[in-house]
Amino acid sequence: MLDVKEVTLRIVPLQDVLLHEQIEKKRVEQLTARLQGDWFLKNPPIVSACDGKYILLDGATRVTALRRLGCRDVAAQLVDYDAPDLLLETWNHILLDLPVADFFAALERIAGLRVVATDPATADVALAQRTSIGSILLSDGAVRMLCASHNAPLAEQSHLLNQIVAEYEGRGEMYRVAHTDLELLLAEHARLTALVVFPRFQPDEIRRLALNGAKLPMGITRHIIPGRAMRINLPLDILCDDSPLDAKNAWLAEWLKTKMRERHVRYYHEPVFLFDE
């Protein structure tokens, strides 16, 4: 069982928080409006320290919204990216009502990208070995591999993935899913056109992308982090004012001690469903 003392909360400069994924503008606008209304940070973003910066693992929408509101700092939960119980997995994209012919015609026009017809087993192996940068499973069972030029650097691969996602973003509906069971997805979504499957990235790749200013498409990395701190409800005034960082963190440490002393911190060992997110 986790101990609350193992949870590390810290106020850090927003300018030092580096994103590794693109943001979804609509979600940022919605959260910015909500934060303006209640003026509290409910759930702290998750970061990992690296070379004097903080790699953002989860919370790109929150970080971007706080920047728009003029906050200088952010309260974040610091985690060890190399901890054995921290998992980095992948979200895949379900596409509904997508014009397939137009989509593939657009993909053919992306410089440096090859779209190769193949079978599911070959596509899975290529993705696992990272000789492809993605797969597309069509509702009729056809499969396409998405291939970059040989030994394309990580930044180039991320650039291609962004162009691929841009070709279906806003055309039809898109949802994230953690598995690739096409038969099950077709049973759940009669209008499913395609499933875009992404590679499983490694923490070192996420670090490199963030430190170099490159970004993956929004919503494809999935960090599973045990012991998340939630519902801290921190006033944004703390994050916006110009007090020294040490003073802010001294206040936060005392705040956390008070929460623990008054037994206001509860650990849920079992998985839960939150219906107010």
Number of helices: 9
What is Rg?
Answer: 21 Å
Order of helices and strands: EEHEEEHEEEHEHEEHEHEHEEHH
Name of the CATH class of the largest domain: Alpha Beta
* Number of individual domains: 2
Quaternary state reads: single chain
Overall pLDDT score? 92
Secondary structure class reads alpha+beta
What share of the residues lie within helices?
25-40%
Number of strands: 15
Reading side by side through the largest sheet, how are the strands ordered? 9-11-10-13-8-12
Shape descriptor: elongated
Residue fraction in strands: 15-25%
CATH architecture of the largest domain: Alpha-Beta Complex
CATH H-level superfamily of the largest domain? Conserved hypothetical protein from pyrococcus furiosus pfu- 392566-001, ParB domain
Give unreliable regions as ranges: none
Secondary structure elements and their pairing?
Layout: E1 8-13, E2 17-18, H1 25-38, E3 40-41, E4 46-50, E5 53-58, H2 60-68, E6 73-78, E7 87-90, E8 92-96, H3 100-108, E9 114-118, H4 120-129, E10 134-138, E11 143-147, H5 154-166, E12 173-177, H6 182-188, E13 192-197, H7 203-211, E14 221-224, E15 234-235, H8 236-240, H9 245-261
Parallel strand pairs: 2-5, 4-6
Antiparallel strand pairs: 1-6, 3-15, 4-5, 7-14, 8-12, 8-13, 9-11, 10-11, 10-13
Describe the structure.
- This protein is of the alpha+beta class.
- It has nine helices and 15 strands.
- The strands form four sheets. It has a six-stranded antiparallel beta sheet, sandwiched between helices.
- Strand 10 and strand 11 form a beta hairpin.
- The longest helix is centred in the last third of the chain and has 17 residues, at 245-261.
- The chain is elongated.
- The relative contact order is 0.21.
- The mean pLDDT is 92.
